[in-house]
């Protein structure tokens, strides 16, 4: 990300800011699109990972659709120019207002997560004289083997319809004149790096597809979600192995003639495209701990505080020098405002520029104004 850039240019830019490598993003998108095209797979980009409009324009240009979890995200996708018929709307708690807005925009599909939601959606669609296309999100009870806070496919999770509720779900679908049932939907978690997990998912998708077909339903869409992870430890030009990822679904998913396989990828597409650039405010050396205090904190990048997530940290100013172990912290009045403990860095000084890598997903979008902090800014590789 930084090999071909004059890092001294960062010295003239007020920190903190997100630095986006749009060239790397384009390579990642092209790689994914080519790998998916081998099997005629459909990709919807998950806006929850990053809804920066510059990135969205690049993603739209590749031909991907949009996966949204709020009316705001649906609205953003439409404003940027995503095809309405490539927009899917998921989320366990869609409000009536959000559903009505999505109905008015004639989106491709609602991924429905409860029987009660089916009933509400049918009622609201009837009032508008519309028919809403729906996919049923099923909780497959597949362990994604990832962080507990980002699993979504276990019985203990709030997402989707559990298998024991499917008979009632089928009855509701048959009784809903303003719903068109087109498929089934799954999403088992995020930051999945063990691809064998997806083999287990394919087995469950095949089972549920057979269950619905045996009940007389025709499935056009098999939406297997996303969750493919990235390598936070080795962020330099690391593009996920999309070919291996898609091959698993080609090999293990039973796809019948006329059926489409849909994916909802987020982090894997944008995660490595950005770094949080920040400057050292103070060095605090003590008997037990040495601290680097940065001008970026958990308000700019929440993941380490929220998930104890690892991000590679680099002193861009020093590059080399006597190694010192520091706790890398921010300025927020919380002890959890820490990017890493006992992180080995060259001896660092006030004014040094640091990069916190792999921040393109769930970075800018989770930023807050806690402590009345200024809104985080974005800088793009094409600008410097």
UniProtKB/TrEMBL annotation:
InterPro entries: Ala_racemase/Decarboxylase_C, DAP_deCOOHase_LysA, De-COase2_C, De-COase2_CS, De-COase2_N, De-COase2_pyr-phos_BS, Orn/DAP/Arg_de-COase, PLP-binding_barrel. It catalyses: meso-2,6-diaminopimelate + H(+) = L-lysine + CO2. Residues 17-360 form the Orn/DAP/Arg decarboxylase 2 C-terminal domain. GO terms for biological process: lysine biosynthetic process via diaminopimelate. Coiled coil: none annotated. Keywords: Amino-acid biosynthesis, Decarboxylase, Lyase, Lysine biosynthesis, Pyridoxal phosphate. The active site is at residue 333. Pyridoxal 5'-phosphate binds at residues 227, 264-267, 362. Its cofactor is pyridoxal 5'-phosphate. Residues 32-270 form the Orn/DAP/Arg decarboxylase 2 N-terminal domain. The modification N6-(pyridoxal phosphate)lysine is found at residue 48. One of its GO terms (molecular function) is pyridoxal phosphate binding. Pathway: Amino-acid biosynthesis; L-lysine biosynthesis via DAP pathway; L-lysine from DL-2,6-diaminopimelate: step 1/1. Substrate binds at residues 267, 303, 307, 334, 362. The keyword Protein biosynthesis does not apply. HAMAP family: LysA. Belongs to the Orn/Lys/Arg decarboxylase class-II family. LysA subfamily. Specifically catalyzes the decarboxylation of meso-diaminopimelate (meso-DAP) to L-lysine. This is Diaminopimelate decarboxylase.
């Amino acid at each position: 990300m930084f090999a071909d850039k004059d890092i001294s240019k960062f010295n003239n830019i007020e920190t903190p800011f997100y630095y986006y490598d749009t060239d790397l993003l384009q390579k990642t998108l092209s790689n994914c699109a080519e790998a998916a095209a081998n099997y005629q797979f459909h990709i919807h980009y998950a806006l929850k990972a990053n809804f920066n409009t510059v990135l969205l324009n690049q993603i739209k240009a590749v031909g991907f659709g949009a996966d949204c979890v709020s009316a705001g995200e649906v609205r953003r996708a439409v404003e940027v120019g995503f095809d309405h018929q490539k927009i899917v709307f998921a989320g366990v708690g869609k409000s009536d207002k959000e559903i009505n807005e999505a109905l008015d925009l004639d989106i491709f599909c609602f991924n429905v997560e409860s029987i009660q939601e089916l009933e509400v959606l049918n009622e609201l669609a009837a009032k508008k004289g519309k028919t809403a296309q729906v996919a049923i999100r099923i909780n497959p009870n597949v362990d994604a083997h990832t962080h507990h806070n980002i699993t979504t496919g276990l019985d203990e999770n709030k997402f989707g319809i559990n298998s024991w509720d499917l008979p009632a779900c089928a009855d509701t679908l048959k009784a809903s004149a303003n719903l068109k049932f087109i498929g089934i939907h799954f999403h088992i978690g995020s930051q999945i790096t063990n691809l064998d997990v997806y083999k287990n998912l394919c087995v469950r998708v095949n089972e549920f597809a057979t269950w619905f077909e045996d009940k007389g339903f025709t499935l056009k869409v098999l939406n297997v979600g996303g969750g493919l992870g990235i390598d936070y430890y080795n962020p330099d030009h690391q593009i996920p192995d999309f070919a291996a990822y898609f091959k698993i679904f080609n090999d293990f998913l039973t796809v019948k003639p006329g059926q489409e396989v849909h994916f909802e990828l987020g982090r894997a597409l944008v995660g490595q495209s950005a770094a949080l650039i920040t400057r050292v405010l103070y060095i605090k050396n003590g008997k037990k701990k040495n601290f680097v205090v940065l001008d970026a904190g958990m308000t700019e990048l929440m993941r380490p505080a929220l998930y104890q997530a690892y991000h590679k940290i680099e002193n861009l100013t020093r590059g080399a020098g006597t190694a010192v172990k520091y706790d890398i912290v921010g300025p927020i009045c919380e002890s959890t405002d820490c990017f890493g403990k006992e992180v080995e860095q060259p001896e660092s000084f006030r004014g040094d520029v640091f990069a916190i890598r792999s921040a393109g997903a769930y970075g800018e979008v989770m930023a807050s104004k806690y402590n009345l902090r200024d809104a985080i800014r974005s800088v793009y590789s094409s600008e410097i």
